[in-house]
């Protein structure tokens, strides 16, 4: 019996079996849970060596294509795509740290990541020390302990737009043979590639600039592929010691790529935050236009930041592209072709002014997201940073009148007209 002579219900599920290998120029979307094995040995080989594709949670050609693309954009050796930015951060960390280990992190990080450190990793007996002045190398050194296994920071941070001296902090990580993991979401590889400055691992929320259109969630871990067993093996027994049942170590199988191989084999598929191939496709397509969007967004953002700084209703603007920013020189040194498009500014009128502002915008969208083609606004003090104390918010640059902008690709004249009209009504409100 062939499929053609089978009965209706059988033909319904078997007649459309694709075995075409056509050289599609755009990345095809392999929206399939799994892949047919050629024969008995092929299945056994796949399970023993991990080569080829078997099940989408452990590998998928669409996902693989996007991993290669993003590894290339970040000047890394390899990448693992996961379902969200938070999955990227947790996968990267759980590939490096275990119970009893310690992390040193910048305090200027995404609130979700801070929660991961304080609520989730802490329960696994992984403790984190936070560094406030990330520009002070001694502050990083002082926080390191014998059981420190990772340094973590964002290259360009929200809300205060702190800029990481990637080379300086990478060198400190290197002194103790642990990886510096950099969340490069806000800078994007279009402006800064941390691996080129010595970082070992880069993570992203691909939901932001990489996908770019505010339609999907995703995350990626990119690795430099330079794991050195001789220097760092004592800090990574899970990479250099034999596996369960005496299996060859990850390092003996993957060499310098041991860390990312471990993330791909043991962490991402086990904790299970697998990306949908459809989302992977959309992230890959977004990344094709990343440089164009970031260039336009950065240009728009600089013009808007300068304009805001000249308004009397505005108390301060925290944008690394402005000479008034304390990290402006570091930004000039590290960011190529723009200063990014996410920043905060503070209105003189405090909370009532901020409320009026978000309720009055028309071209800007009031929502919690960043890195979109559309311009967005959010009041951090009552949303993302609501759980913080006043003192903590002050350190992070979040006051009652502070607003976060994510600038899109619209015509900047329309954006400034929207802001100008809103500031006029803010002045009336608080006058
Ligand atoms: C959004 C974001 C995350 C979390 O990413 P999701 O895709 O929302 O899970 C992590 N880090 C930074 C800097 C972010 O902006």
Structure notes:
This protein is an alpha/beta fold and 431 residues long. It folds into 2 domains: 59-287, Type I PLP-dependent aspartate aminotransferase-like (Major domain) (Aspartate Aminotransferase, domain 2); 290-430, Aspartate Aminotransferase, domain 1, CATH 3.90.1150.10. Helix content is 41%, strand content 13%. The chain contains 18 helices and 12 strands. The protein has helices at 8-14, 40-49, 61-73, 85-94, 111-123, 137-143, 166-175, 188-191, 229-232, 237-240, 250-254, 258-272, 277-288, 290-309, 328-334, 350-360, 390-396, 412-430; strands at residues 78-82, 102-106, 127-131, 148-154, 180-183, 201-205, 219-223, 314-318, 342-347, 365-366, 376-378, 402-406. A 7-stranded mixed sheet has the order 1-7-6-5-4-2-3, with helices on both faces. The chain has a 5-stranded mixed sheet with strand order 8-9-12-11-10. α3 (61-73) runs parallel beside α13 (277-288) and α4 crosses α12 (258-272). The longest helix has 20 residues, at 290-309. The protein is globular and about 80 Å long. It binds pyridoxal-5'-phosphate (PLP). The site of pyridoxal-5'-phosphate has 17 residues, from α4 and α5.
